[in-house]
Amino acid sequence: MESNELDAIDLQLLDSLQHDASLSNVALAEKVNVSPPTCLRRVKRLTEGGWIERQIAVLNADQLSNRLGHGLTALVEVSLDRQGSEHLDAFEVRAVAHDAVQQCWRVSPGPDFMLVVQARDMPHYLSISQNLFTQDANVRNVKAFFATKRAKLTTTWPVLK
Question: At what angle do helices 36-48 and 25-32 cross, to 10 degrees?
């Protein structure tokens, strides 16, 4: 099978891994009814084929903010004066490189970018804002929305029918 094709077992593997990437190879193989060597080979092929981007741990935001003070999430719209690809690319590189930026999306229509920014508190957000937006002469408009409650956070895709 080519690396760009997915069969029903591949989809089951992807679904299982996106819900719990800590499953052992044996447990994963059992879950999708294949042998452990077959499972290992398939997961390796899915990873090498780019279907699995990376495996991460999703941290508990409430516990983390209580311990480290990461209590402010901002959803930020950013519009640039000049939208040439070199200007969009330059802002994107700066935003992606900033540790406080958890997500960076180019969007259309409306603003040029949507960012999810995690800050310790409002003074920390102000510092991030000055660094990313105020010092960039090409940033025309910034509109920040501050999260009051996270109702849902998921990283899963509906891959099974």
Answer: 100
Tokens of 46: 């899915």
Q: Are 142 and 120 in contact (CB under 8 A)?
A: no
Question: Each residue of 31-65: pLDDT tens digit?
Answer: 999 999 999 999 999 999 999 999 988 888 778 87
Token look-up 């044996």 returns: 26
Q: Which domains does the chain have, with CATH numbers?
A: 8-48 (1.10.10.10), 61-146 (3.30.70.920)
Q: What is the dihedral sign for C-alpha 85, 138, 72, 74?
A: negative
How many whole angstroms separate alpha carbon 144 and alpha carbon 146? 6
Residue 125 near residue 117, CB atoms below 8 Å: yes
77, 98, 114 from 107: Cα distances, Å: 9, 19, 7
